[in-house]
Design brief:
With 186 residues, the protein is α/β, with parallel strands linked by helices. It has helices spanning 22-33, 45-51, 63-71, 99-112, 117-138, 149-161, and strands at residues 2-8, 56-60, 78-80, 143-147, 165-171, 178-183. It is 41% helix and 18% strand.
Length: 186
């Protein structure tokens, strides 16, 4: 049996509070992209167990991911921009909304706006290429991608389309989220 684990980074040391304008949300996203993790944050024991036997680690180069690798005591084989998700692109509006609402609007825009079709295509292509690299690496032992929730969802979709099945994990909704996938061979 082969194993791949997709891991979302830990909690980011940046909080948004109150109602944000479009410009405030843009500034928040820029700060989020350069932020590391909450200083005292530690991965859950179950995540440590999931990654204990990993042979090959791919990772995004985002600061929050680099710090996640260190806290998981993982030495990456490949750290690359190609595993990084694009910052969310919220629709311009004159509203003041909580950051989570802006984020939801940005994700919906990213998924459905005709103006962002090429960005969606790029995301899907990069996720499919990442899935192929993970599959290839898993031939030599368990492989992992440490990165971002949104990008990991696309990678998980590409893996399940290639016959991998979910074996465990809470998903990517929160910090330290992960998904373990397996495939029986032979």
């Amino acid at each position: 049996m082969r194993k791949i684990v997709l891991v979302r980074h830990g909690p980011v040391a940046l909080k948004a509070s109150g109602l944000l304008s479009f410009e405030d949300f843009q500034a928040y996203i820029a700060a989020y992209e350069s932020s590391g993790l909450v200083e005292a944050a530690t991965p859950p024991e179950e995540l440590f167990r999931q990654v204990a036997d990993i042979s090959t680690v791919f990772a995004s180069n985002a600061p929050r991911v680099v710090e996640t690798l260190a806290r998981l005591r993982l030495e990456p084989n490949v750290v690359s921009l190609e595993f990084r998700e694009a910052p969310p692109s919220a629709p311009r509006a004159t509203l003041r909304l909580p950051a989570i609402v802006w984020l939801g609007l940005a994700r919906a825009r990213g998924e459905f706006s005709p103006a962002l079709a090429s960005a969606r295509g790029d995301l899907r292509s990069r996720a499919a290429a990442c899935a192929e690299r993970l599959i290839e690496a898993s031939q030599s032992g368990p492989a992992a991608l440490v990165g971002h929730g949104w990008f990991n969802r696309y990678v998980a979709g590409a893996l399940t389309a290639r016959g991998w099945r979910r074996a465990g994990g809470p998903g990517f909704a929160g910090p330290w989220g992960y998904l373990s996938l397996e495939r029986h061979v032979g």
